[in-house]
Amino acid sequence: MLKLVDLTPDEYVPIMSHDHTLYSRRPFRRHKFLVKNLVTHLHQFVNETRVGQTCTPIRQEFILLSDVLGVSALVDAINNPTVKGGTASSVLGPFFTEDALDVALGDSIASEGKGDYMYVEGRVISTDGTPIPDAIIETWETDENGFYDTQYLERDKPDCRGRLHSGPEGKFGYRAVVPVPYPIPGDGPVGELLIALGRHNMRPNHLHLMVEAPGFRKLITALYPEGDEWLSSDAVFGVKKSLVVKLTEVKDDTEARQRGFPRGGSFKLLKFDIVLVPEAESQAALEEATRERARNAHS
Length: 299
Known about the structure:
Blueprint: E1 3-7, E2 21-25, H1 29-48, H2 50-54, H3 61-68, H4 71-79, E3 117-126, E4 136-140, E5 161-165, E6 171-177, E7 182-183, H5 189-197, E8 202-203, E9 207-212, E10 219-225, E11 244-245, E12 247-251, H6 253-258, E13 266-271, E14 274-276, H7 279-298
Parallel strand pairs: 1-2, 3-13, 3-14, 10-11
Antiparallel strand pairs: 3-6, 4-5, 4-9, 7-8, 9-10, 12-13
Cofactor: Fe(3+)
Protein name: Hydroxyquinol 1,2-dioxygenase
Pfam family, one: Dioxygenase_N
């Protein structure tokens, strides 16, 4: 249980201690009252609702609830203000895991038979065009059935997800499968909420990316192939115009095999440069956005 202890200003310590005691000054009694009640009711909500009870190590129902209410998209927008030239961010979603396997450049993140072939390539660069070598790229997606690997009862290893590094000139490339639109899990309380609100639970097809490199703002984003019927009504509000991409069909058996696709034939090519924002630029944009919100709040 959270304990609240009043201290004099000289004794003020702006942290929560190891025993969960929150120290505060007396002039902020109103803040203390609000936070105490917020934490109390939030903890009760987690413990007493089916949203909290549905969560497991690989199913994050609370993230899903945050997504469908637009909270995830709002927090993303607040924490990642637009920087000219930088790749836009998007919602993380509830299906990221820490156990993605490392793959070499050109290798596949998907086991054979998981869907139509797709090759993803591009560069990781800074806003000034400088290549960024050795950037860590985490990527994950659905299979052709619209399921992430974590949604299968029999999951013996990560699939349709991987971790790779950009090359010396910032270049990257890997084999994947064409993602498909899918319904977010509807067998829990979040699905019931959407039904009650008369909303659909569909997401347009997309490929998740998380990219980081020293000195740059960590990027969490997703790429959305054009033409999907759900692009304008994404259930979790993740689509941004600049993240809608073109898939080019390559009908060349020889090239398909050269790129490592076992069955050859044709494949879809997704080309996209990932532009990371230097920490200094990102911090300046965040501070300006904070000041702008403050001005709007008092206008």
